[in-house]
Amino acid sequence: MRYSIQEVAAKTGLSSYTLRYYDKAGLLPFVARNTAGYRIFTDGDLVLLHTIMCLKNTGMAISDIRRYIDDVMAGPTSIADRKALLTAHRAKVLAKQQQLTENLREVDYKLGLYAAPDAVTQVQGELAAARADKAANGLADPYPAS
């Protein structure tokens, strides 16, 4: 199948503007143009675009995505480079995932604290401890009076 930029925008949830930006940034060298100069996408292009979106959504820099696409366009001789790039990116994604997991634990802890029957008492205890810590270190109390 062949798709216009508007159809691809509707299929992917990306705006036409974003698709044009990706093209200008060198991320879509595989997209052909018709005689009028309009971008024409194919099903294969959508597969690569899905990969680009995945890499972008997981925090890969545009310059690294461009490097990956350049490697894809170079063919099988670049498999080692692609593997190295994706391996490094995977490590970053896993580290971010671990950080998110730890942050989620803290959010869940706080939600549990605020849902507890003695939430007011617990929060007052945390505030008292924070005030005592400030006082013990000779610092001003930044907390509003209750």
Automatic annotation (TrEMBL):
Entry keyword DNA-binding: yes
SMART domains: HTH_MERR
Annotated keywords: DNA-binding
Residue span(s) of domain HTH merR-type: 1-71
Key word Transmembrane present: no
Signal peptide span: none
InterPro entries tied to this protein: DNA-bd_dom_put_sf, MerR-type_HTH_dom, MerR_fam
Pfam families assigned to the protein according to its UniProt record, in alphabetical order: MerR_1
Tree of life domain: Bacteria
Cross-referenced PANTHER family: REDOX-CYCLING DRUG-SENSING TRANSCRIPTIONAL ACTIVATOR SOXR, TRANSCRIPTIONAL REGULATOR, MERR FAMILY
Protein known as: MerR family transcriptional regulator
Originating organism: Lacticaseibacillus suilingensis
Lineage: Bacteria, Bacillati, Bacillota, Bacilli, Lactobacillales
